[in-house]
Amino acid sequence: MEWVLAEALLKQTQDPRVLLGTLCRGEASAERVETLHFLLQRLENETARGGVDALPEAAREVAAGYLVPLLRGPRARPAGAPDSDPPARPRRRVLRAAGAALRSCARLAGGSSLAATLAEEVLRDLLAVEPAPGVEVGAEAAVEVLTAVGPCLRPREDGPLLERVAQAALSLALAGDGEAAALAAGQLLPELGRSGGAALRAVWGGLLAPGGPGRVGPQLLVLSALAERLLPAPGEREAGPDARRSVRFWAVVQAGLARAGDALTRKRARYLLQRAVEVSAEQGADCTCGSREGNGPSLFWWSENKKDELLKFWENYILILETLEGNQMHVIKPVLPKLNNLFEYAVSEENGLWLFHPSWHMCIYKRMFESENKILTKEGVSHFLEHYETKVLPFSPEFSEFIIGPLMDALSESSLYSRSPGQPIGSGSPLGLKLERFLVTYISLLPKELKSSFLFKFIQKMTSRHWCAVPILFLSKALASVPRCKALGPDGLLALRDVLQCTMITHQILLRGAAQCYLLQTAMNLVDVEKVSVSDISAFLMSLRQEESLGRGTSLWTELCDWLHANESCFGRSSGCSPVGLQEKCSLNAYVKNLVQEYIKSPAWETGESYWMPDWFEAKLVALMTLLAVDVDGMRNQDSEKQRTQSILRTFLDPLLDVLAKLGTNAYMPLPKTDRCLQLLVKLLHTCPVKGSSTEADEVFTLLQDLVVSTTESISKFLLRRLTMNELSSVSDLDCCHLYLQVLTELTDLHLKVGWKRGNPLWRVVSALENASVQYLQDTDRAQELTQGRQIQRVVSMAALAMVCGATDQELELELDPLDAGPTERFLASLPLNQMLQKPHPEDQSSCFEESSSRGWGKIAAQYIHDQWVCLSFLLKKYHSLIPASDGDLLEPTLPAVQRPARTLRSALSALTVLPAEHVLPVFHCMKLLVPKLLASSESVCIEAFDMAWRIISSLSNTQLIFWPNLKAFVRFVFDTEVLAVAAEIKGQAYFKIKEDELVSTSTTRYYVNSQQHRVKNRIWQILLLLSPRFDQNFLNRIIDKIFQAGFINNQASIKYYIEWIIILILHKFPQFLPKFWSYFSYGEENLKTSICTFLSVLPHLDIIIQNVPEKKHILKQALVTVLQWGFSHNFSVRLYALVALKKIWGMCKTLQVEELDALTSVIEFSLNQVENVHGAGNAKKNWQRIQDHFFFASFHPLKDYCLETIFYILPRLSGLVEDEWISTDKFARFTDIPSHTGCLCSSSPTRLHQLKPGDWAQQDAGSNLGETANQSEWADVQKKIIPWKNNVPDLDLELEFQDRAAKLGKSINRLIVVASLIDKPTNLGGLCRTCEVFGASVLVVGNLQCVHNKQFQHLSVSAEQWLPLVEVKPPELMDYLQQKKVEGYTVIGVEQTARSAALTQYCFPEKSLLLLGNEREGIPANLIQQLDICVEIPQQGIIRSLNVHVSGALLIWEYTRQQLHG
What is the C-alpha separation between 1082 and 27, in angstroms, rounded? Predict the structure, then answer.
């Protein structure tokens, strides 16, 4: 068409120069410039044949006077003239046409002077910091000019210029942004590369420059564009540098394969690898690339002697990479055995060395690790760990880097460690076990000199991110399994401490504690004791939480003592500041003795006027090391007597005991010293008790008790003075108060254990403390002005009373007064509850002091209220028998808080609104005592207490130390036996609370199996099922509709079974609800759908339901009619459930000989025979057999299986619930108060239900292929997704307007336009979009671009609309659009059956073809058929006269593509 147009123009005039001048005048539209391009091409062809003379000068004039100004920017126009620049897309079209025309001008002008001049000017403007005035040189236009004139430059004469152009183009391309970069890489650099010489060397040098651009995507784009020059085929002359021999080239390719985030970059990297292999095979010459490290295997090599093995290796390698792009496990799984083959090829059988560089294997694993498909990630990690364990691979530094880098990054994903289906409870994670075995194997094979550095880097990596609890647990466990070796020094021990700090982030206490245990074992296994000191070890041990991991008497404590005993003489010197006299090596005993002595000393910096509570860290350290040293000494002298233990303990603690003995008499002892000694005392008493055994059997704890008891009188006098003599007067003193009360509590507990005596000096101190506290609180109530000191002492007094009440509450022996109310009880019962402490008035009027003293006053006030409720809880428990059922008419009660319970309960509700979560526990204890008394008389207040308490529990954070104690207290007071008994007796609002709660959620939001919502609902239905025997008819009248409606919710399997079971039990006990049950079968078809299966599942147990009904025939008739209706449902699952029910009910009818149903005999018998005798082995027959064998219909008996085992263990197990929800019957053994009349026994199910396994009834077809795949060592054939190439190189031609986006993607694009404006259905449009993208159509025309947002369209297109140009042409505009395309040279082809249509098998498609597809129902309208150049029809052999429009379009698109490929 273009040649015809140019020929027609030339015939209009004898002088082409006139025609050229005419075209260079007027508006520079795309059509005008393209016409100029066609004309210049025609003249260039004529000049080559010698047909036209005197054109060089005209070509120079066109280039300099028209094309270059057009390319460089808008031509000068008068000031104020309107801007008429075309939009961006037409502008690019103009630039491309002008660039092509400029190339023809340069050729017509002859020589390279014009080309060199233009290149110099454009290059100068492109590189200039500021362009010349009035000239706007765009990078895009500059690339067009350089692309046009570059081929005309001479490689030798213009070598320096070519080199500068190449360097500028490379810099622009590697920038990687915008159209200019794409043009430079796609057009300019390939043109320069073809010229070879200096330009190619400049580009290659820039790509290989050390420290060059690090962006892999742009580098691969440039390399792909120059692949023909850098990887030349055999026989090509003037080949450029051989990229195969460059380490830098292969590093870029590997980076693209492994680290590139987009598929296109990875595709370019695979293309370069594939071309390098093909070129090597074709050349047949040996080739070697150096190693990245200077030694070891080459990154790439070729040997003609091993051509077959090399081709097989790289074929499998590229196949694996291409398959991984799909992220589909069913496609990837069969290919994974080929990865094993790669390792076999890569390692020499002769010397066990790497033949292929191991980094190639790492690229595959990195792709798997970084996949969005977590199943693929898990498969990749498992394969790597397992393969390295089973195959002894040679050592390579890349493996260590890979393990510490990508592998550990992948291992940070918690979901990888889940147990496999069918694994029993308590079994380890398969991935965790593989990780453990792998790490042991790998480290054992490491060279000795590398173990230390690898382990240190491995541990450092564990501190480089915030790990979740599960990954850090399994990594720690794997480290703990490494065999003993001297690998870690002080730095390694410090790194382990950092890992311990990482474990503290998680709130999961058990996982956190387990990780700490494993990390301690790691330290004992891997630390080089000669390089660390006892001080370093003690600092490490302080990072452990003793209550979670290192408890005294545990196996880990014993293991640590053994380790310290074995290495005591080997520890090195202290690397930091150590106690006096410990700079040299010393024994553990000497270290601890000096440690205690240094601790007891009062540091000089703590003797100033402003005093703050000492930190607990040092006390914890001294206590831990002291007890460790005592136990280690006990191991050293196992045969010694008790005196030895007593002697060593006294040796360590003599300085402490000396201070404690003087506390009561030495009033001038520095407070820092006294408080530090008391802190150490508390830590010793907390750390010393042996976990899980009686304290009497522990000799060390018994001796410690005796030593502490001997100092009790002195300590208690000191505490009494400090707590009652107004010595605590500042906010910071409250920490001291907490310490003193803690010591007093410990002493009280200690004396109770050794035997409490009434004349005990501690008893006198406790009594005096109680009296002094009450007296002070009474005095301050009458005070007019409360200063800071008074308020602080008030807080101290209330805390002291709470301590006394708490201790008394635990041990009745300590009760200081008889049951009759004394002054203390009357005072506490009369206290105004929830009285807030006013901010104090400081004695010092300094504003700075007032601000610092009042800081945190809200916490102090909350603690004060908490202590009030502790005292009140003690009173209510002591005088529980005096609590009345209501406030009554008692005018002056002796104990108001006890004898007016309603008012006290309201105060408790008020307290819950102001107290933080950590302080509500005593309030819950009070509510537990008050609610049973008030439930009958003040039910509304009790219900409010339930609601408010639950809101608090629900809003708690996941800090388990706060949540679980509060939840336990909540359960105890809400589900107290007395509360439930009273509620059931009065049957008030509390009794029907279950009706008000939304136990059966009606939300349509989908929830997943084993999700929290699923597990909560499962527990609720278990409770309802457990309580169902106690339901009476009145109660069921209230909830029966909710139970039936729950069947219509999208429930998980376990919930479905519980609902069906409880319906069966209710109908069995109360057959009068059967009419309501039948009514739900006609609940509304829109609401039923497949949820009707829940109700149909009840009917196979109809024999149980009507067991006690005298007249059964009427019910059977109703059931039969109902089931027959649903037996004709369109839904296959519904029909299956209906047939199961029909089979069971019809059997009952025949047994009872129901004559009224004889008319239905033939229909029912035929239906049942038909389903029983289904031929073949298809899904229908399998599903029919499977549903009959389902445990709920084949083995389950609703009455015989009604037991705790079935409800809480068997059903959760069979329905696929996570193992945590399988509650065995032994968990209920300690609940001896379960009433026997509940109808639910703890014994096992009498049926064979408990013998079934999930596999006995679960569908076996899901995932079966994966299991088979795992057993395959090699597959003869595997799925391979088509990776389209055009002549084996990504297409970078950007000439056509619609190809911009696709060309950048490296796609092969044809010139086919598919017009689908007449198609209505989104599914057909989505399928066509996918087909057009796969076969490289240039554009898809649709009637409305909004169709791409339709879900059905997206489901069929699978994102093809993102990679295919779409154009909107509405049906009324189709006539004009088709005419325009005809003008542009397109042949308009209709896909329609007409009288003159051509058969598809006989038609030859032109390159520029337009396919017009008709409407699904009406085809192509008659008016549009007249615009067609030809109609093509598809030959048919069947009876149906037409194909689906998408199928028809796909057949023609493929035939067009086939012809173009083979044409």
Answer: 75
Q: How far apart are the first and last CA of the chain?
A: 20
- The span from the CA of 550 to the CA of 650, in Å, is 24
d(CA 473, CA 521): 13
How many helices, marked H, and strands, marked E, lie in the chain?
70, 9
Determine the Cα–Cα distance for residues 771 and 801; give it in Å rounded to an integer.
9
Given pLDDT bands bounded at 50, 70 and 90, which one contains residue 1313?
A: very high
Nearest residue to 313 (alpha-carbon basis) of 281, 272, 353: 281
Could you tell me if residue 987 is left (phi over 0), alpha (psi between -120 and 50 degrees) or otherwise beta?
Answer: left
578-596 in b/e burial notation, b at 16+ Cβ within 10 A?
bbeebeebbebbebbbbbb
Question: The tokens of 1233 are what?
Answer: 């108060």
Locate tokens 């093909």: which residue?
A: 278
Dihedral sign from CA coordinates of 1418, 1421, 1425, 1430: negative
Of the candidates 1281, 1312, 1287, 1326, the one whose C-alpha atom is nearest the C-alpha of residue 1411 is 1312
Contacts for 20 with CB less than 8 Å, ≥ 6 apart: 36, 39, 40, 58, 62
Give the pair of three-digit tokens for residue 772.
Answer: 């002094």
Q: Is 1144 exposed, middle or buried (0-12, 13-18, 19+ CB in 10 A)?
A: middle
Q: Apex CA 270: angle with CA 267 and CA 271, to 5°?
A: 85
User: Would you say 476 and 515 are in contact if contact means Cβ atoms under 8 Å apart?
Assistant: yes
Q: Which of 1291, 1286, 1312, 1287 is nearest to 1302 (CA)?
A: 1291
Residue 811 scores a pLDDT above 70: no
Q: Which amino acid is at 369?
A: F
pLDDT tens across 886-902, in order?
A: 776 666 778 888 888 88
In order of 979, 1048, 1088, 1139, 1280, the CA distances from 1085 in angstroms are 44, 11, 5, 19, 45
Q: In the numeric block, which tokens belong to residue 830? A: 């009369």
Distance CA 1021, CA 823 (A): 52
Residue 853 CB partners (closer than 8 Å, separation 6+) = 730, 731, 788, 840, 842
Place of tokens 């829940």: 1094
Sequence-ordered list of residues with C-beta below 8 angstroms from that of 1231, at least 6 positions apart, any chain: none
Q: What is the pLDDT of residues 839-858, one digit of tens each?
A: 766 554 444 444 444 557 88
The arrangement of strands across the sheet holding 1398-1399 comes to 1366-1368, 1339-1342, 1312-1316, 1409-1412, 1387-1391, 1430-1433, 1398-1399
1288 pLDDT more than 60: no
10 Å CB burial of residue 281 (0-12, 13-18, 19+) is middle
User: Which is nearest to 497 in space by CA: 453, 531, 462?
Assistant: 462
Counting every residue written for the chain, the total comes to: 1463
- Report CA-CA distances (Å) from 491 to 497, 533, 793, 911: 10, 12, 48, 51
| Phi and psi angles of residue 1036, each rounded to the nearest 5 degrees, phi first | -65, -30
Tell me which residue has tokens 């703890």: 1242
* Dihedral angle of Cα 333, 334, 336, 337, to the nearest 10 degrees: 140
Pairing of strands 1409-1412, 1366-1368: unpaired
Contacts within 8 Å (CB) and 24+ apart, 1040-1045:
1040/1066, 1040/1073, 1040/1076, 1041/1076, 1042/995, 1042/999, 1042/1000, 1043/1000, 1044/1076, 1044/1077, 1044/1080, 1045/1000, 1045/1002
Kindly state the tokens that stand for 596. Answer: 């205690």
SS (H, E, C) 1350-1393: CHHHHHHHCCHHHCCCEEECCHHHHHHHHHHHHHCCCEEEEECC
Quick one: average pLDDT of 779-793? 77
Q: Which of 1312, 1431, 1421 is nearest to 1372 (CA)?
A: 1421
Residues 6+ apart with CB under 8 A from 120: 161
Distance CA 633, CA 589 (A): 8
Phi, psi of 851 (to 5 degrees): -65, -45
pLDDT digits (tens, 9 = 90+) for 267-278: 889 999 999 998
